[in-house]
Amino acid sequence: MTSEEQERVITVHEAVGGDQYFFDLVDRFYERVKVDPVLMPMYPPDLAEASRKTALFLIQYWGGPSKYNDERGHPRLRMRHNPFVIGQVERDAWLTNMMAAIDDAPLQSEIYEMFSRYFDHASTAMINQPPVTA
Length: 134
Known about the structure:
- This protein is mainly α and about 130 residues long.
- About 60% of the residues lie in helices and about 0% in strands.
- It has helices at about 5, 10-15, 20-35, 50-60, 65-70, 75-80, 90-105, 110-125.
- α3 packs across α4 and α7 (about 90-105) runs antiparallel to α8.
């Protein structure tokens, strides 16, 4: 083994098995969205395109091919989510469903922690409504 091979860093994308992991993850997530009374009203009836775009984004984010950027340009997540009313309730519903989808296919603990931190941070960044006060 050459020193270059020894120093090669494995991406999360590779560690989870490539594109298929993310397509499966997103499928599990959207199966939950279909029955979630908070989230489903925010989505079109046919979730196929949202699912595909989400999977491509995650594949790219976690070190896979840049098909998302090739098709859609820079992710600009906050801008793309701005038309939707996203408060703490919507954020929490999204994160709960995503983490449940992740839990359905056990991961190495380091990767699970990376996903958990990322999705917590990313979902919080999408909030565009002030907190509800009593």
